[in-house]
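Example record used in the benchmark description.
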Amino acid sequence: MFNSKKAEATIGVTFNNKNILKQAFTHRSYLNEKPEEKLSSNERLEFLGDAILEFWVSKIIFNQFPNYPEGLLTNFRSQVVYTPSLAKIAQKISLGQFLLLSVGEEKEGGRKNQSLLADTFEALIGAIFQDQGLEKTEKFLEKNVLPRIKAVAKKKTLKDYKSRLQELVQEKYQVTPEYRLLKSQGPDHNRIFFVGLFVANKKIAQGQGPSKQKAQQQAAQKALKKLKTQNL
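Model output (structure tokens):
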């Protein structure tokens, strides 16, 4: 049985509508076994919470790191909101104990499943927003997500793809990657740039985008993936 009082005490939010709190923890597998409860799964709340979380994290890092370029901000945000990161936050505040799961999902370790925990955390954000509004939602995020933002800011991996690739290539091959514009196409208001990434005059990746910078970042991202599995 879902214990709303314990859940509220754990997350630090008192809900006006206890049903929406329960919905935030309701996995769709549970509904297959309990159709008589006439509940909705947490998927719609997850959709809403995902959008709110991305907006809030974007706002925080945009304001706190005014010198970071777009590529670095994108990398920063992804390290905050990706599944393992959100799962850790959910585990820290013990959300798994409140999940409503099917017997099968329970046996398969659903309460510790990273994907389920991350989805539930996003659904909870959506539920808080629906029940309490944006101000209370932001307070919840400040308490639970802001520490993660601070932790990511201290990580050495927080660099854009070009910076990370340059360090890696210089360390491994003692040369500097070179980006060459291969071509551009389309009208001025919607032009696409194609950039080749060369190491020691050897083309190792190609990127494209609405600006040369974004095309270079995409090429660097592809090269980093390549370096993980093979030499250049």
